[in-house]
Amino acid sequence: MIVVVALTVFAGAVLAYLAYPGTPGRSRFMAFDGFITLPRGRLLTVLDYLTLADHTLFVTNASSGALFKVVLNSSNLTASTVSEMHGAGAAHGVALLPGQNVAFITRSEANTVDVFDPNSLKQLGSIPVADDADAIQYVPSVKLVYVANGDGKLATLIDPEKRTTVGIISLPGKPEFAAEDSQTGLFYQNLEDINSIVAIDLRKRFITGQWSLAPCEGPSGMAIDPRQRRLFTVCSGNAMLVVFDLDTHRIITSVNIGGGPDVVAFDQTLHRIYSAGKTGQLTVIQQDGADAYRVLDEIHTHYGAHTLAIDPITHEVYVAYASLLAHPRVAVFSPTM
User: Rounded CA gap, 178 and 189, in Å?
Assistant: First the structure.
């Protein structure tokens, strides 16, 4: 009986923790500004990619397929306007086209890229793609939308004006996130299942090189420092961030970070790197030089809070929380020093 009671109490405590996320842990380097509350749908909500542009935050819902649009109120977070676009199939990445009323969203279960108006959230069409459509980006240099198809082990190229597939690039492994090197124009794609990275020439549509990311296991999120020629990728399998030299194509150093990291972002002005992981930690790393990095803090957030975005102007960091029973939410942090 004592064992049963103890297990019941433990299960209740776990449920309470998952259902009611509290205030994030304190930090000398980041101030917690508050939560932006999103509409509740299913009992369990897993938020995925965050995309920020022009004081508007787009948040995808991998559980229900919904897309949340948050028009940010900088003076009062709780007064931010939230609207919702429903959709079929788990929603993941969003690609926005600068200056145009058209955007794209990936749906892994439906194997489609849906086209929508980012102002009205009205769906404009749907483009069939290969299995497991996940990360997506608009690449201005080639005027193409790039889609990483994880299970398909390929990348789909979409013409955003014609709204059709115009090319496919086969990959030697399962793609996760990708980033463009603005100096060379090469597109770097990490491959989660073989712990590697490839460089892609999108103009010629072929792979120009492939390199190991060891000791990284399960590379996921990626960001690039174009000035100091460094690429950062977080490793979901062994909780670290590795720094890759874009010129010599070798690993420079690695830094231990919070468990289950999924997304990494780089603030070029403050020389800070942020990573969020599924175990519920926001890791803050200072870049002291091209080859020098130190962890400033590990901020406790909430289990499943694994994605984030940075506002390059205000330097605010937005972290998406998973939720059980409660409303999903986005935590907002500001640097203090």
Answer: 4
Which residues lie below 8 Å from residue 15, measured CB to CB, with a gap of 6+?
324
Chain centroid to Cα 174, Å, comes to: 17
pLDDT digits (tens, 9 = 90+) for 124-181: 999 999 999 999 999 999 999 999 999 999 999 999 999 999 999 999 999 999 999 9
Q: Round to whole Å and give the CA distance between 166 and 157.
A: 6
Contacts of 126 (CB under 8 A, 6+ apart): 112, 113, 114, 115
Can you give the three-state secondary structure of 222-271, one letter per residue?
EEEECCCCEEEEEECCCCEEEEEECCCCEEEEEEECCCCEEEEEEECCCC
Q: Could you tell me the two tokens for 248?
A: 């010599």
> Which residues of the chain, if any, have pLDDT below 50?
4-6, 8-13
The span from the CA of 283 to the CA of 154, in Å, is 31
* Contact of 155 with 189, CB cutoff 8 Å: yes
Task: Read off φ and ψ for residue 157, nearest 5 degrees.
Answer: -110, 130
Q: What is the C-alpha to C-alpha distance for residues 239 and 107, in angstroms, rounded to an integer? A: 27
Q: Are 190 and 200 in contact (CB under 8 A)?
A: no
Tokens 């020629």 map to which residue? 229
Token readout for 336 is: 């203090």
Residue 11: the pLDDT is 44
N- to C-terminal Cα distance for the chain?
52
